[in-house]
Amino acid sequence: MAGRKSPNGSRSEQEGTPEPRRVPMREFSRSLPMSLLRAREAVMRQFRPSLRSHGLTEQQWRILRALTAVDTIEVTELARVAFLLGPSLSRILRDLEARDLIERRIAKADLRRGEVSISSKGLKLIEAVAPTSEAIYAEITHRYGARKLAELQDMLGELERSLAAMEVAGEGEVEADE
Amino acid sequence: MAGRKSPNGSRSEQEGTPEPRRVPMREFSRSLPMSLLRAREAVMRQFRPSLRSHGLTEQQWRILRALTAVDTIEVTELARVAFLLGPSLSRILRDLEARDLIERRIAKADLRRGEVSISSKGLKLIEAVAPTSEAIYAEITHRYGARKLAELQDMLGELERSLAAMEVAGEGEVEADE
DNA sequence: GAAATTTGATTAACATGTTAAGTTATCCGG
DNA sequence: CCGGATAACTTAACATGTTAATCAAATTTC
């Protein structure tokens, strides 16, 4: 009906029919990254409201959670366990410190390093949020099945390990020996 | 500077020993959200360099990929299939349009709706990136195992479905006793 | 032991995630 | 018709993801 519809001049398609382009790629919605993204979002959707009601984002929660497992921890190590990039962590720590949920000091032995620990206020917050989080986690486990959940985590872990080997293997794909 | 070290006044711990706090929660690094996050990151780490070398982010790629499967698509539907929130999509479409990778027009029947399609330039870009992406995907499949990969995706899909049921079920949990 | 390099952390700049508010266009009951 | 309610985006505002640059402190090298 309308004049020009088919913007792709190189295509021999006429207009009118919702013709899919022929780019031979995997069904998009079933790609592994999309599957993982959707699954994770489905999980986090359960937790976010509770965290938010306590004034915490997912990442802030991860950091505080990680801090409850140690006395003090260095920034780099914290980034590793909370799975955050340095810049993100820097910003969040600045905010958490301003809210008195954590405490920092500089390592005596190495003035470059920062040591972080949770404050008593932060600990109280964790203790306030934990029951709900645990309840949600229990509900998820129940709905999906504890057995299956454990299996899923095993498979995810193995996927990680499989890909870790690729990290460097593909580096020389262009150079061939550099 | 080096004066006080133990900031948590309520804790009876001395300093020196890396004593973990006692907050009875699941091992942090093995939580389902973390497992999914790490797995997805391990996967995307493989693709990002290639996408980046073509000037595309992961999300921009998702959008263009989704557009190759249709002639035109409405913004809301595109958000659904590319799994992006409206605001993110709005910004990205603005950018992609400015780069002439997509084309938009307003639906004649409903002036609120926008119809999006990929441009020939966008299509060429897809065709330039696709081979490398497919090769990476094939390598991942090979390393992890095609059988296992399919099984993993099935399990992720079932996890989604399990949690979809929770969405509304937990709504009234707060008003019951708060 | 001073210069060069490396390391730990932060800052900068840009893109996206997330929720809330705003805009314009449809729909709908009176 | 008309005005309120909805719907489809879009903007706004703030937080994080991501890469590059910066900066100070530690390590290595000559």
Kindly summarize this structure in a few lines.
Chain A is mainly alpha-helical and 178 residues long. The first copy, chain A, is 57% helix and 7% strand.
Give an account of the 3D structure.
- Two copies of one chain form a homodimer.
- Chain A is mainly alpha-helical and 178 residues long.
- Chain A has a domain at 52-154: Arc Repressor Mutant, subunit A (Orthogonal Bundle).
- In chain A, 57% of the residues lie in helices and 7% in strands.
- Chain A has seven helices and three strands, in the order ααβααββααα.
- Chain A has helices spanning 32-53, 58-67, 75-82, 86-98, 120-144, 146-164, 166-169; strands at 73-74, 102-106, 114-118.
- Chain A is globular and about 50 Å long.
- At the A-B interface, helix 1, helix 2, strand 2, helix 5 and helix 6 of A face helix 1, helix 2, helix 5 and helix 6 of B.
- Chain A binds a DNA duplex (30 and 30 nucleotides) through residues 48, 52, 57-60, 74-76, 84-92, 94-95, 110-114.
**What is the tally of beta strands of chain A?**
3
**Low-pLDDT segments of chain A:** 1-18, 170-178
Secondary-structure-derived class of chain A: mainly alpha
> What is the H/E string of chain A?
HHEHHEEHHH
N- to C-terminal distance of chain A: 57 Å
Report the portion of residues of chain A in β strands.
Answer: 5-15%
Counting DSSP H or I runs of 4 or more residues, the number of helices of chain A is: 7
State the fourth-level CATH superfamily of the domain at 52-154 in chain A: Winged helix-like DNA-binding domain superfamily/Winged helix DNA-binding domain
The interface involving the most residues is between: A-B, 88 and 86 residues
- Can you name the CATH architecture of the domain at 52-154 in chain A? Orthogonal Bundle
Assign the CATH topology of the domain at 52-154 in chain A.
Arc Repressor Mutant, subunit A
Strand order across the biggest sheet of chain A? 1-3-2
CATH domain class name of the domain at 52-154 in chain A: Mainly Alpha
The backbone outline of chain A, from C-alpha atoms, is globular
Helical content class of chain A: 55-70%
Radius of gyration of chain A: 24 Å
Largest sheet of chain A: 3 strands, antiparallel
Arithmetic mean pLDDT of chain A: 84
Oligomer state of the chains in this structure: homodimer
